Amino acid sequence: MFVYVIRRFLTAIPTLFVIVTLAFFLIRVAPGGPFNQERGLSPEIKANLEAQFGLDKPLWHQYLNYLNNLLHGNFGPSYNLPDFTVGELFANGLPISIQLGASALTLALIIGGTLGIVAALHQNRAADYAVIATATAGSTIPTFVIAPIIQLVFALSWNLIPVGGWANGALLNKIGPVITLALPQIAIVARLMRGSMIESLRSNHIRTARAMGLSQWSVVIRHALRGAVLPIISYAGPAAAALLTGSIIVETIFAIPGVGRYFVDAALNRDYTLVMGTVVVIAIFTIVFNLIVDILYAVVDPRVRYD
Amino acid sequence: MLHNLFRATVFAASIMSVGGVYFAAPAYAEMVFNRGNSADPESLDPHKTSTVYEANILRDLFEGLVMQDADANLIPGAAEGWTVSDDGTVYTFKLRADGKWSDGTPVTADDFVYSFRRLLDPATGAEYASMLYVVKNGEDVNTGKMKPEELAVKAVDPTTFEVTLKAPTPYFLEMLTHQSTYPVNKASIEKLGNDWIKAGNLVSNGAFTLAEFIPNDHIKVVKSKTFHGAADVKLDVVNYFPTEDRSTAIKRFEAGEIDYNDDIPTEQMADLKAKFGDQLKIGPYLGTYYYAIKTDKAPWDNVELRNAVSMAIDRDFLAEKVWQNSMLPGYSMVPPGIEGYTSAMAKFADMSQIDREDEAKKILEKLGYGPDKPLKMEIRYNTSENHKNTAVAIQEQLKPLGIDVTMLNTDTKTHYGHLEQKGDFDVARAGWIADYKDPESFLGISRKASGNNYSDFDNADYEAAMDKAAAAGGKPEERMKDLEAAERILIDEVGQIPLLYYSYKNLVSSKVEGYSPNVMDVHPSRFISKTE
């Protein structure tokens, strides 16, 4: 297993290299640049700015420079927020996005998982229909609708939580964004869990377990769940990568200083270094979580071996 | 009951949660002003900023030679007074003796020499370096033809700062209210390099000092103990919250989380008026929303045709229906509101819309356009629901005249990249907000050499009139008349198509005192206070 993990990390290096290279040149194809704005700059002033950030050098030179800096852990300065380096922006925002994303994912796995099991055990009965109906609604209502509703109801009408802001991570400020992020995930996890649990409950080893007189609890939790959880793991990997790197909608509506907004803002502002930073971060998260998924597979399913 | 139980539970949980505890219990009753600002500043370095979002904060942190009061009128700042030479080119500023940086050191003429040179030094990469092109050698320094030391500024003695201008510039003092001309602290920049701007390091000379800057979250500034006017500053803390999402900003205002916001979602105008009454402040703001029209390309090189298109656009409809009265119909490039200046309105401004359309139709027929030969026009605009709705409304308005309008939407960077690189287009959306209270700010952008002259307007009479106004620098009244004559040419020649004037749209809590609405939408926190 250890050798397998090391091998996976080594193969990630060329993957990252290809992603960085593609992203570097693709963003440069987009028309306009970081210094085009409503107030036009004279060619001289624009040249001064470009020289300051090394954008006056040939593209291949900039590319080699960027790679060199990246190898030294330096993501460069942000063009549109020059008071901060890209590294500082992520150091500020990423822990916030991770906190919210991890809380939402944990909630989704616990609540969604439980709902899915309950639905599967009561297949085609009232509880099942209730879960399916809720889950369908939950996964079809977009977050930009859920978030303002939460603000109106919980913050303005009932005055239980603040409308927005981070307030240095106060618990009350996290409730709105976490619920908004978690709701669609709960719905998806519940549906996945229901389907795989129904299938798992029908399998031969469960029939054997029941025939041996094991209790319902023991059958479901010790035997059926093990098989049923595999699709959830496959889903949770990429979902975690997406959730932990923030959501522009949730962060903008709740005024949360995470990194989700950089994915869109950086591209729109042609903030080349920030775009590259976001690409590298999301690539690393995706690679790491895919690896975790594969390892968990081996842990849960005795048939999977990597040695 | 349920409410209390919930709060108690959450409170208990928050005490137990690791790393997420936040107590906001001031030792004494601090006066805190929570101020919504539509966007985070790009930078807090005055020399690296350009937008009003930075200006709002920098006005609190720094003090230029001159400043603006609560009504945006010019008042002495770091300089307690000044004299101007008879020919209008040499300004001698007397700095106040009690001017201090937040580290306690005095603000000296050397600081201004250093700051003016730094703004123009090409190595600084200042977007607004052109603010000091009026200073002798300014442009040559910025373009690398001269050294920063050759800039015509000098410290006569520690409290006397002298600036020599290229030519008499009556709006020079107004320009000095712009944040790009604020002084920066030489000692801390030389010691800390790029880190001088960070919270904890930043040394400034304004009414407040920087305490925290968490990007996309908040900027906290606290009252400066060393500020010369500290005795009159009532607020202890100002928190700036970036309120990018206008709808959230409204809800935060309603919940009392912010006391002020600089903008509103215009589509909710009617509801907001009903809900907030007097707390919603709307009035004219020095800004023009206009369409640039490619004047050097057929068929738009024909003045009559440009005029026909301009007069057929129903500006009242745009202002009332599309912008929900958050804008005013505009017929000139310079919006009303500048003292001593009367804007030159388009001649059709007095006609009814029906008469304008008839007149436009006649012109189009005369030029040979009609059902058999429709006039094709493409409107380019940058992404925004209101820009789109404006273009769609204009498309509908021009259709009956046989003008076939198509639209092209791109994101802001692509849009302005295309315009600045002189790309091909027919008509393109643009806007201009005054940097300083002077018609020059609006008329300069239509000059041949301006990088913002997207229309490629090139008219010898206009250039001559603008030069004449510049030459009349020493005589303010004559100069204003010359500028009016220049605008008359620009409007008659339809160098641009002005459509609307901007309005300020502030939400101000009834607890806030000292707020005064003004055409520059400038509200320094040092004049503001709050009642509980």
Proportion of strand residues of chain A: under 5%
SSE class of chain A: mainly alpha
Approximate helicity band of chain B: 25-40%
CATH architecture assignment name of the largest domain in chain A: Orthogonal Bundle
Largest sheet of chain A: none
Helix and strand topology:
The complex is a heterodimer of chains A (307) and B (532).
Chain A: H1 2-29, H2 43-52, H3 59-71, H4 86-121, H5 126-140, H6 143-157, H7 171-201, H8 204-211, H9 216-244, H10 248-253, H11 260-268, H12 272-300
Helix pairs in contact in A: 1-12, 4-5, 4-7, 4-9, 5-7, 6-7, 7-9, 8-9, 9-12, 11-12
Chain B: H1 2-16, E1 32-37, H2 52-61, E2 66-68, E3 74-76, E4 79-84, E5 90-95, H3 109-120, H4 138-142, E6 153-157, E7 160-164, H5 172-175, H6 186-192, E8 208-214, E9 218-223, E10 237-242, H7 246-254, E11 260-261, H8 269-276, E12 280-293, H9 303-312, H10 315-322, E13 327-329, H11 353-366, E14 375-382, H12 385-398, E15 403-410, H13 412-420, E16 427-433, H14 440-443, H15 460-471, H16 476-492, E17 496-508, E18 512-513, E19 529-530
Parallel strand pairs in B: 1-10, 1-11, 14-15, 14-16
Antiparallel strand pairs in B: 2-3, 4-5, 5-7, 6-7, 8-9, 9-10, 11-17, 12-16, 12-17, 13-17, 18-19
Helix pairs in contact in B: 9-11, 15-16
How would you describe what is shown here?
The complex is a heterodimer of chains A (307) and B (532). Chain A has 2 domains: 2-71, no CATH class; 92-300, Orthogonal Bundle (MetI-like fold). Helix content of chain A is 75%, strand content 0%. Chain A is built from 12 helices and no strands. The N and C termini of chain A lie close together (6 Å). The mean pLDDT of chain A is 91. Chain B is α+β, with helices and mostly antiparallel strands and 532 residues long. Chain B has 2 domains: 47-197, Dipeptide-binding Protein, Domain 1 (Dipeptide-binding Protein, domain 1), CATH 3.90.76.10; 283-504, Dipeptide-binding Protein, Domain 3 (Dipeptide-binding Protein, domain 3), CATH 3.10.105.10. Chain B is built from 16 helices and 19 strands. Chain B has helices spanning 2-16, 52-61, 109-120, 138-142, 172-175, 186-192, 246-254, 269-276, 303-312, 315-322, 353-366, 385-398, 412-420, 440-443, 460-471, 476-492; strands at 32-37, 66-68, 74-76, 79-84, 90-95, 153-157, 160-164, 208-214, 218-223, 237-242, 260-261, 280-293, 327-329, 375-382, 403-410, 427-433, 496-508, 512-513, 529-530. In chain B, the strands form 4 sheets. In chain B, strands 1, 8, 9, 10, 11, 12, 13, 14, 15, 16 and 17 form an 11-stranded mixed beta sheet that branches. A 4-stranded antiparallel beta sheet of chain B has the order 4-5-7-6, with helices on one face. In chain B, strands 2-3 form a two-stranded antiparallel ribbon. In chain B, a hairpin with a 2-residue loop joins strand 6 and strand 7 (160-164). The longest helix of chain B is centred in the C-terminal third of the chain and has 17 residues, at 476-492. The chains are: A mainly alpha (307), B alpha+beta (532). At the A-B interface, helix 2, helix 4, helix 6, helix 7 and helix 10 of A face helix 1, helix 7 and helix 13 of B.
